[in-house]
Amino acid sequence: MKKEREEEFKKEMDKFEVEKEKKINDLRNDYMDRIKATSNPAEKSKLLEEMGKRLKTVEANLEDEKKRQEAALMKNLKKRQERNKKIRLEDLDKQQ
Q1: Which of 8, 23, 42, 51 could form a disulfide with 31 if both were Cys (CB 3.0 to 4.6 A apart)?
Q2: Who's near 46: CB < 8 A, 6+ residues apart?
């Protein structure tokens, strides 16, 4: 049961990691497109600075979200495991 819970936990967290990377890449690509579109070196520098700050903020927010999701997911998986365990015990008692 614990192994099943760990596998499901890993699968869900992998899904979150993929979404996290996609958000970061989308943001980076958006800024890179804006940087390529401008010809003013000062504007490019300003956009690069802005991109760096925004990426740090987004990454920090996503890391916080990941921690919250990990905690909530583990809690839900444990509840489900306990509920399934209780149902199995009840079924065994009915069979006897």
Answers
A1: 51
A2: none
